[in-house]
Task: structure prediction
Amino acid sequence: MKLKDFKNVFALERIAGGFLEEDLHSFSRSFDDFNIQFNSYEEALAFKDNLKENFRKGLKVVEISPLTYPKYFIHNLRGNVFSTRFLIDNKILVLMDFGNTFVSLVCDLKDQTIVKRGSYKTLDLAVNSSERIFLSYQKN
Result:
């Protein structure tokens, strides 16, 4: 299975942050199965347009994909996602910020697992390591 085979979903996100929940009143900081989801941009936009004007003004339609929101596809990711990058087939490279450390992860989307993990004290070290990982996958 390749990255393009993963079905992206669309959601309504509050401009101030948070995804619209199924109850149509609450918002959650992280995207999960309890958020209202759509199969297409057009479907999400049509739904948004049917909401009350004062409510829909603060919403935008966003696309949720393995590269834009890896935590939705790999549930055991912790920390703040700093960047993501496609490697090969069903693998992505995720760089995460844990406050005083940075972690680079190679994640398998098909199995929803973390294949490789590295921990770094500075962002520079993490980025350099991530670039080496990226290049090693490009050579294979």
Remarks:
- Residues 123-139 form the longest helix (17 residues).
- The first strand starts at residue 9 and ends at 14.
- The chain has a mean pLDDT of 86.
